[in-house]
Amino acid sequence: MATIPENLNDTLTRIEAACRAAGRPVNSVALLVVSKTQAAAAIRQAHAAGARSFGENYVQEALDKIASLADLQPSIEWHLIGPLQSNKTRVVAASFDWVHSVDRLKTAQRLSEQRPAHLPPLNLCLQVNISGETSKSGLLPADLLPLALAVAALPRVKLRGLMAIPEPAGSFEAQRAPHRALHELLLRLNQAGLGLDTLSMGMSADLEAAVAEGSNLVRVGTAIFGARPA
Ligand SMILES: *Cc1c(COP(=O)(O)O)cnc(C)c1O
Fold first, then answer.
1. 36 lines ligand 1 (CB under 6 A)
2. Which atom of ligand 1 is nearest to the CA of 220?
3. With contact defined as beta carbons under 8 Å apart, do 103 and 139 qualify?
4. Does 163 sit in the ligand 1 pocket, CB within 6 Å?
5. Does some domain include residue 205?
6. Neighbours of 168 (CB within 10 A)
7. Chain centroid to CA 39: how far?
8. Per the domain annotation, does 162 fall within a domain?
9. 67 three-state secondary structure
């Protein structure tokens, strides 16, 4: 089995190749290493191999790891990419650098109110339900602009962009369609004056399609750590 540093290297090579294929600069896409369910020791290995940004889905699990890896601050950055309940916003506002999964104004308001004064504004992405699946979290595209305008006006958060988890698709072309749709939504928000710079899309199975459609932040777990424990 390949090691974490080898897998990390392979993933960076995939991202570079996808950038070249898309005619984009090879450093135009950042890697968020998705470490949900992985032990702190595995995160430490990835960090030692050069990874700096880590994505977690479950707040309590993440807080435990953030505490046990506190010695790596400030060279480690934590992103919440899983659903966020209102009763967890205070600890999230205090411990994370980014939240990708905002889909309600109330959550963003609480994060803004609760962001500690000594920290810079919390970076936020709005999660869009781009494949229109009824069971998934995320906003419908039609609801995006008013929410984005309201979140952008909050003082202690910084609206950075959009995130989506498209439905799995078989072919490269089928994978591209939802990523293209998310990019178009970002462009539309920017035409409305929002100045967003982050398109958080692409995972282990579809990062090439996401990069082809303009992603600049791919979130990769399985390709780096192997299959997650059940
Ligand atoms: C788990 C997860 C990922 C990573 O998925 P892989 O297929 O393991 O690369 C990315 N984004 C979100 C929101 C996730 O929950």
1. yes
2. 9
3. yes
4. no
5. yes
6. 11
7. 20
8. yes
9. helix
- List the CATH number of the domain containing 109: 3.20.20.10
Residue 60 domain flag: yes
- Model confidence pLDDT, tens digit, residues 11-35: 999 999 999 999 999 999 999 999 9
Paired tokens of 49 = 């191999």
Which amino acid appears at position 77 of this protein?
E
Reported as a single tens digit per residue, the pLDDT across 113-160 is 999 999 999 999 999 999 877 667 899 999 999 999 999 999 999 999
How many structural domains does the chain have? 1
User: What is the Cα–Cα distance from 86 to 99, expressed in whole angstroms?
Assistant: 13
Distance from residue 203's CA to the centre of ligand 1 (Å): 6
Token digits of residue 194: 């929002």
Task: Tell which phi-psi region holds residue 36, choosing left (phi > 0), alpha (psi between -120 and 50) or beta.
Answer: beta
Domain membership of residue 179 as a residue range = 4-225
**230 domain residue, yes or no:** no
Per-residue CA distances from 196 to 6, 21, 101, 143, 228 (Å): 33, 25, 16, 17, 32
**C-alpha distance from residue 93 to each of 104, 111, 205 (Å):** 16, 5, 30
Query: What residue's CA is closest to ligand 1, atom 7?
Result: 204
Burial of residue 74, with CB atoms counted within 10 A of its CB: 0-12 exposed, 13-18 middle, 19 or more buried: exposed
Pocket test for ligand 1, best of 14, 34, 199 (most atoms within 8 A of CB): 34
pTM: 0.97
CB of 131 sitting under 6 A from ligand 1: no
For ligand 1, is residue 165 a contact (CB within 6 Å)?
A: yes
